[in-house]
Amino acid sequence: MISRLAQLWPDAPAAFWLVLLAGLYYVVMAVWLAAIDIKHQLLPNRIVFPSAGIAGLLLLLASLFMLDGGTAVRTVLGGAALWAVYVVLRLIYPAGMGYGDVKLAFVLGLYLGFVSWPAVLWGTFLAFILAAAWGLALMAVRRGTGKTQIPFGPFMLAGALVMLVVG
Q: What is the CA radius of gyration of the chain?
């Protein structure tokens, strides 16, 4: 997303400002949700649902100003695809993932889909790698076991952030 900003400024300044605003919103949303999830193991609907609308609106409007229908379609499909993957994971092992994570996956899929399909894949993969590393670290210092529940939202947000910055 960051690399895309440089390309947008000369060709589509309105899209530049929309993508920048979407990125700034992501940072605020991510910090807010991560703090709540760490403290309460909860991703509140009052934050996640409006975030889907705000991200969707900003990114789709940016696609419109870029005159890029492919990016618009990929943004929506990225949200839907990532949501579907998390629904399946929730159905397979309900104790391993909360509904908040499933709903957040849609929001992150919008952002990652705006960037690219590989960003959707790698942002998701990074979330699981980061969470696994954290779980292993907890076990190594004897602060957790294989059954210790950890909030997954911060890892989802961090994995997506890496791809938004690097991807």
A: 16
> Mean pLDDT across the stretch 152-159?
98
167 closest CA partner among 112, 88, 125: 112
Long-range pairs of 13-20 with CB within 8 A, sequence gap ≥ 24: 14/62, 14/65, 15/61, 15/62, 15/63, 15/65, 15/66, 18/58, 18/59, 18/61, 18/62, 18/65, 19/58, 19/59, 19/62, 19/114
Please give the C-alpha separations between residue 136 and each of 66, 119, 142, in angstroms, as whole numbers.
43, 25, 10
Note the pLDDT of residue 40.
96
Q: Helix, strand, or coil here: 149? A: coil
Q: What does residue 47 show for φ and ψ, rounded to 5 degrees? A: -105, -45
Q: CB–CB of 82/105 below 8 Å?
A: yes
pLDDT higher than 90, residue 68: yes
Choose the weakest-confidence range: 6-20, 48-62, 102-116: 6-20
